[in-house]
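We close this part of the discussion by returning to an individual protein. The amino acid sequence and the backbone structure tokens for this protein are reproduced below:
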Amino acid sequence: MTPAANQSLIPASRARAHIFYRRLSLAIALFALCSHAISMPAAAADRTLILATTTSVRDSGLLEALLPTFEEQSGIEVRVIAVGTGAALRMGREGDVDVLLTHAPSAEAKLVDEGIVIRRTPFMKNYFVIAGPSDDPAGISKADSPISAIRLIAENESRWVSRDDDSGTHKREKSLFATAGVDGHPQWQGFERTGSGMGLSLQVAGELRAYILSDIGTFLAFHERIDLKALSHPAESLKNIYSILQLDPTRFARPIASSAADELEGYLLEPSTQKRIGQFGQQRFGRPLFTRLHSKKRDP
């Protein structure tokens, strides 16, 4: 079980205090990382890589499975900042990190169009699930689409936990709600906002016996502890694509470790790594948590 999944359930009444201290710790850690990177000689800085990534690849345990091999083979130390995709993209926009791993294609495309990101490479995918209590009070397991499921939840004003953190998952939630014709800022009683990552939000949903949108990887990593069930069915609107984004180093005063970032991308696209991605979770869950998007060696 991953370290994240070993955490005790956090009651909703304690969620906001936990979120405050998490955000404070993140701000301090980011300041320390960036200050250290600025003060290092260029050669040393290029062997240290600051990766801003979505929480789902951390909470699912994938980064823990992949990064040690990369660090050992390359000699590059990877410092991970796991936040929502929106926060990660903002860090990239400001040049506070060296490379991004996110899962919000439309938001990523904006940085590409602006020239901040010079290369966006999708390398794996999975899908989102709408999870909820096994008794399924809104009856969404019988819905013919994720959109219909959201409508049922809204019509019944069922308990719902939203990350509300501008993450890739939150962006997809808002898109689903909009397509379903649901107010973009729901106010019904029982609509809970955590402002935090996937793992904590799943724990809150489990405590409240609420519905929630989650990536399948983090959901499976936590499902034994939260007593929720995946009630939706795979659909195009739930497809979840992860990409690695390379920044334009000429745009920022802080030196960007572009060489190290390119090495990480190459490692993620290597057939052996892609095979590991495609098998990750199979032994523990009986099925892989991600689908690889590359099977051939990248051209030099």
Summary: Confidence is low (pLDDT under 50) at residues 1-25, 34-45. Strands lie at 48-54, 77-83, 99-102, 117-132, 160-162, 191-193, 211-215, 229-230, 239-247, 291-292. The chain has two domains: 4-126+240-292, 128-238. The CA atoms of residues 178 and 184 lie 6 Å apart.
